[in-house]
Amino acid sequence: MKFVLFSSTTFEVSDPVALIESYCFQSDFYRKYDLLLLEPDGRKVDHVNKIGARIRGGALQSIKLIIEETKDLRIFRYDLDRFLEVDDATRSDHINELSEKVIKKLLGIEGIGLSRATKVLHTLYPEIIPMIDDALQDEYRSTINSRWTEKQPEQIITAYYNNLKHGNNWQNLVEIFSQTRSSGILGLTKVRIFDILWWSYLKAKRLRQEKNIHWSTIK
Fold first, then answer.
1. Which residues make Cβ contacts (< 8 Å) with residue 62, sequence separation at least 6?
2. Residue 66 within any structural domain of the chain
3. Taking residues 191-203, what's their average pLDDT?
4. Rounded to whole angstroms, how far apart are CA atoms 190 and 168?
C-alpha cells in the first residue's frame, strides 16, 4: 500500500498489518498504553507516561487543570471519520479553537513542547487527536514550511488532517483498521495506526540515509 505524508512524500508499505503486528509484538507501548482503550476506567492524563512522555510532578497537575477547563471543546465530540467529513472551514475553526484554548496553554508549561502536548491529548482523545512527534515536525519543516515553529501548532495539525484525505490514505487506513480488528489487534484507532506507519517510515528513512540500510517491508 502507498501512503502520502504531508502531501509531498510518498512511501510504500508492502504489508501494513504485518508491520503493525510486529510493532505491537515488540513494544511495551502496546501492552501498557494502546490496550488502555479496553479498560473500563478509560484513560487518564497520567497514562501519557506509558508512551514515554516522561511528564512529572507539577507539570502534570498544571496539565490536568487545563484539560479540565477545556474538555467541552467541539473537536473532542468527533471521531476521525466524522471530522474528516466536515467542510474545510468548520474543521479549521475547530482546530484553531483547539490550538488557542488548549495546545498553546499546554505549551506555556515548562518542559512541555508540541510533542508532549499532543501525546496528552491523544491519550485522552485517541479517536481524533494525533501525536505530532518531533520526527513528524521535522518532516513538516523540511517538506512544507522551513520557517514553521511550535508557535503555530494549528498549521501542522491542519496539514495532518488534510494529509489523511490525500490520495488513498483514508481508504487504506479504513482497510487496515478492519484487518487489524479481524486479526485480534485491539485498542488501535485509525489515528494510532497512521502514527505507527509514518513513524516506521521516518525511522526507515533515517537508517537508509545514515547507515545505507534498506528495508524490504517499507520504502
1. 109
2. yes
3. 95
4. 14
